[in-house]
Amino acid sequence: MIYWDLFLAFFIPNIIGYGGGPAIIPLIEAEVVGRYGWMTSQGFAETLALGNALPSPIATKMAGYVGYEVAGIGGAFVAVAATVIPSLLLMLGALGLLYRHRDSPRVKRMSQWVRPVIAMMMAWLTLGFFTESMAASGLLHTLIIGIVAAIALVRFNTHPAFVVIGALVYGGLFIS
Amino acid sequence: MKQTALFWAFFRVGIFGFGGGPAMIPLVRAEVVTRHQWLTDEEFADVLAIGNTLPGPIATKMPGYIGYRVAGISGCAAAVIAVILPMIVAMIVMLGIFSRYRDVGWIRGMGQAVIPVVMVMMAQLTWDFFDKSKAALGWLISIAMAVIAGAVIYWLGVHPGWVIGAILLAALLRPSRKKRAEGAA
Predict the structure, then answer these.
(1) pLDDT higher than threshold 80 for residue A66
(2) What is the ipTM of this complex?
């Protein structure tokens, strides 16, 4: 059942994804592209690019869009609910318990131990985008866009929205 | 009405909150503590600390909890919807238009050109997560955990949920500081 699959695909990344929104991205990719094949790697990259250019949390934007693509408004609702509701219910239900443990070393350890794994998955995803771009646009365009984007983002702290817009202009003019 | 105030407060947070969840926290604070005085500074810090003990996006847990505290279930719904809905609709509309004209050469070129940008952003996140991991665990343990987890996930084909679930469980149940974290994976 598609709604159940959508629920699981977003519930699992969000319930294990310690470290905030960005930590969830490679976990969602593993479900949406890897496990269920709802999206191609390129489609996922496009979604992520637009998601990074727009405000508001990345996890719910991804869930809303992927859910809508897969199963319409109902799908969007299920995917967003799976993203938001479980951890929110935990927070409302177990507030007292969590309050006592908010400085607990165990809780800190949980996000600390998960981080290297997430970093590895992010590195893997970076590599995946590289091969995808090589296949779609070739080495020259990949290098030009990649290097300019890296300089803009890292060196000059340019807003991601402008970097994405710049790439769109470049792509519209020089790749086709 | 409190629900309306909550809605517009978190609508502003959602619209101006560029850069993902953690970047939105100062905006939430400006609305909730400074503008509306729904929470004091200390309460806000506690809610943030509690939110961080749980998985999932911080930018929906905080509005949800604050909305609930101010105006019950309907306040919770108003705050969460205000923060997430506008940009979900924007995504669906913009990507919908984009996919309709995918066959046009220069539009396809635009789609291809954003992949290297996302690659760079993901590389940045990778570095950021590894750097934080290095600061907490040291580079040796960080690399060892990353390599072992990578081999289990990508070489053995184990679902990442099992790997991370096992690590979370080990972190939670282990009574004292232990040296070998990767044993759990």
Answers:
(1) yes
(2) 0.87
